[in-house]
Write a structure and sequence with these properties.
The chain is mainly α. It contains 4 helices and 2 strands. The longest helix has 39 residues, at 109-147. It has a two-stranded antiparallel ribbon with strand order 1-2.
């Protein structure tokens, strides 16, 4: 009976001691451990890779847009994949370069959640595009087999 009388009081005291109004406003990003002396040199190849990825994806988009023979579903999916890749790289690299170059190691809570949301969204889009590309290839190969007579035999010359 005594345990029943003390438990409500204990719950009240625990809830008062566990209530905290401390809110996290920023996270501290530590970077890569052990390379603090030369981490700014790591930003140069990363920046070059980022610019190379942007340039290659933009070149892919421009080529597919201007070449009329590339206006087919597979190339349209490839252009969508290039846009998603630009978005994914642009979501990740600026903060990474800011950490490595300028030692800007803090990120606010809303910025962190927005970056996590964007990265996961772009990754899901990329997976969906790969699925669509696989289905498109399957459909085109099934259609060519259907039109070709159904029996696909491969002959090799020796």
């Amino acid at each position: 009976v005594d345990a029943e009388k003390t438990s409500p009081a204990m719950d009240t005291s625990l809830s008062m001691t566990n209530s905290s109004r401390l809110q996290v406003s920023q996270f501290l990003l530590m970077g890569l451990p052990g390379i603090h002396e030369w981490q700014h040199w790591l930003s140069l190849p990363l920046a070059l890779l980022y610019l190379l990825a942007l340039g290659a994806n933009l070149l892919t988009l421009i080529t597919i847009q201007h070449e009329l023979t590339l206006h087919q579903p597979m190339y349209q999916l490839l252009s969508i994949l290039a846009v998603v890749d630009i978005g994914l790289a642009t979501t990740i690299m600026p903060k990474t370069l800011a950490i490595l170059c300028f030692k800007n190691k803090t990120i606010s809570l809303p910025e962190c959640f927005a970056q996590i949301y964007a990265i996961h969204s772009f990754m899901c889009m990329e997976s969906g595009i790969f699925l669509c590309m696989a289905v498109d290839r399957y459909n085109s190969s099934a259609q060519s087999r259907h039109l070709g007579g159904g029996d696909s035999t491969v002959t090799t010359s020796r």
